Amino acid sequence: MALQDGDAAPEFKLPRDGGGEVSLGDFKGQKLVLYAYPKDDTPGCTQEAIAFNRLRGDFAACGTQIVGVSPDPAKKHDRFKQKHDLALTLLADESQALAEAYGIWVEKSMYGRTYMGIERATFLIDGEGRIARIWRKVKVEGHAEEVLAAAQAL
Question: Which residue segments constitute the domains of the chain, with CATH numbers given?
Answer without folding.
Answer: 27-153 (3.40.30.10)
